[in-house]
UniProtKB/TrEMBL annotation:
Pathway: Purine metabolism; IMP biosynthesis via de novo pathway; N(2)-formyl-N(1)-(5-phospho-D-ribosyl)glycinamide from N(1)-(5-phospho-D-ribosyl)glycinamide (formate route): step 1/1
Keyword Metal-binding: yes
Record-linked PANTHER family: FORMATE-DEPENDENT PHOSPHORIBOSYLGLYCINAMIDE FORMYLTRANSFERASE
Subunit structure: Homodimer.
EC number: 6.3.1.21
Record's protein name: Formate-dependent phosphoribosylglycinamide formyltransferase
Length: 392
């Protein structure tokens, strides 16, 4: 069979793996790229490359060699200035090279949302040195949230509760960023009642919203998500207004994860991923089309006549507790004994403390039941060494 089109995925984690599977279901040729060998999406793609995706030359070489119809970013940390050039030369970047550029670091997207579009966000300051940072934190007041400009899944992020914690928070930010740079964002701490991801799809069928996904984050990384999340009609309308404004501005086709905080009488924009979102893993069981299927349909220019929340669903990621280069996931059989439950094992080559290795996915008659099942299933799962000499 001759593939209809070729996609080049930049980043090959658990989210990309599902994108590759959906792309292959529609007859595409898939090429996966990441910074290490054996990444989850590489295990299912037709071909793969290991490069430093922040290296412009290395990125260009892979693109020119493969000549993909679609370049699909899967993580933020990519040489997006090169993507802008490649787009000018005629390559198609999803959703657009500008969207990838603006969401690569927190400053681009925050300034666009707050200053250009006037969307409600936490107050913020940027700082390049420790002195500027200390000044910015005092201006924001305590507690405030400190994040490296370029990082994800909470890496390098901390809540600074008093002046005495300034040095500790600065050190965390300096050590946690994805790339070597000192610029940080200091944000007003928002006391929200809940937070959601509003998956928003731009396709030939127009802009569509999935039911809101509620989630809980710990140390800046998600530990539980569910769909639908209960919110008032006014909150939903405001969330959709914000999501429409930001995704219209970013443009292009594809699925976006719009992160919002729901406070007592205000909805705040937090950030947006121009790609499937980790909290959206729940859609693998809760929707007729998962966020990955929606992304692929949208970027191929296929219609999306309807998105249905087929059952209340929940997801609980399994995180590794320690560094293991030889590991296996235990408890899968027990987890699958929980009704209406599935498990996805990502197949990452090595475990590291806090690294997401698998996810438990459940549906139920209610969100409460789905959450209880996913939590029970997660309780069975573990990441353990597979070395025979240390096996219990
Ligand atoms: N200003 C804030 N006030 C209160 N809580 C915050 C604030 N900013 C972030 N958080 C909390 O930290 C979480 C992670 O923040 P954020 O989404 O900015 O980090 P991230 O590293 O980009 O995460 P990811 O890449 O997983 O989306 C948020 O979902 C929220 O729970
Ligand atoms: N919040 C962003 C997110 O969830 N991204 C997902 O995690 C992978 C990196 O995982 P790793 O750090 O374990 O390699 C990324 O490739 C993507 O699939
Ligand atoms: Mg986030």
């Amino acid at each position: 069979m001759q593939a209809s089109q070729k996609i080049l995925l930049l980043g090959s984690g658990e989210l990309g793996k599902e994108v590759v599977i959906e792309a292959q279901r529609l007859g595409l040729e898939t090429v996966a790229v990441d910074r290490y060998e054996g990444a989850p999406a590489m295990q299912v793609a037709h071909r793969s490359y290991v490069i430093d995706m922040l290296d412009k030359q290395a990125l260009r070489e892979v693109v020119e060699r493969e000549k993909p119809d679609l370049i699909v970013p899967e993580i933020e940390a990519i040489a997006t200035s090169e993507l802008l050039k490649l787009e000018e030369e005629g390559y198609r970047v999803i959703p657009t090279a500008r969207a990838a550029r603006l969401t690569m670091d927190r400053e681009g997207i925050r300034r666009l949302a707050a200053e250009t579009l006037g969307l409600p966000t936490a107050a913020y300051r940027f700082a390049d040195t420790y002195e500027q940072f200390a000044e910015a934190a005092k201006e924001m007041g305590f507690p405030c949230v400190v994040k490296p400009l370029m990082s994800s899944s909470g890496k390098g992020q901390s809540v600074c509760r008093s002046e005495a914690e300034l040095e500790r928070c600065w050190t965390i930010a300096m050590e946690g960023g994805r790339v070597q740079q000192t610029r940080v964002i200091v944000e007003e701490f928002i006391t929200f009642e809940s937070e959601i991801t509003l998956l928003t799809v731009r396709s030939v069928s127009g802009t569509a919203f999935c039911s809101p996904i509620g989630h809980v984050q710990k140390d800046g990384d998600y530990v539980e998500s569910w769909q639908p999340h209960e919110m008032t009609a006014d909150q939903l309308a405001e969330a959709q207004r914000i999501a429409k404004a930001i995704t219209d501005e970013l443009g292009g086709a594809g699925l976006f994860g719009v992160e919002l905080f729901l406070a007592k009488d205000k909805v705040y924009f937090s950030e947006v991923s121009p790609r499937p979102h980790d909290t959206g893993l729940v859609t693998l069981v809760s929707q007729n089309l998962s966020e990955f299927a929606l992304h692929v349909r949208a970027i191929l220019g296929y219609p999306i006549p309807e998105i249905e929340n087929v059952a209340p669903g929940a997801s609980r990621p399994l995180k590794a507790g320690s560094e293991l280069d030889d590991y296996r996931i235990g408890g899968v059989g027990e987890a699958l004994s929980v009704p209406h439950t599935q498990v996805r094992v990502f197949g990452k080559p090595v475990a590291r403390p806090g690294r997401r290795m698998a996810v438990a996915l459940s549906t139920g008659g209610s969100v409460a039941e789905a959450r209880e099942r996913a939590t029970r299933a997660l309780g069975f799962l573990n990441v353990r060494t597979s070395r025979p000499d240390v096996r219990p």
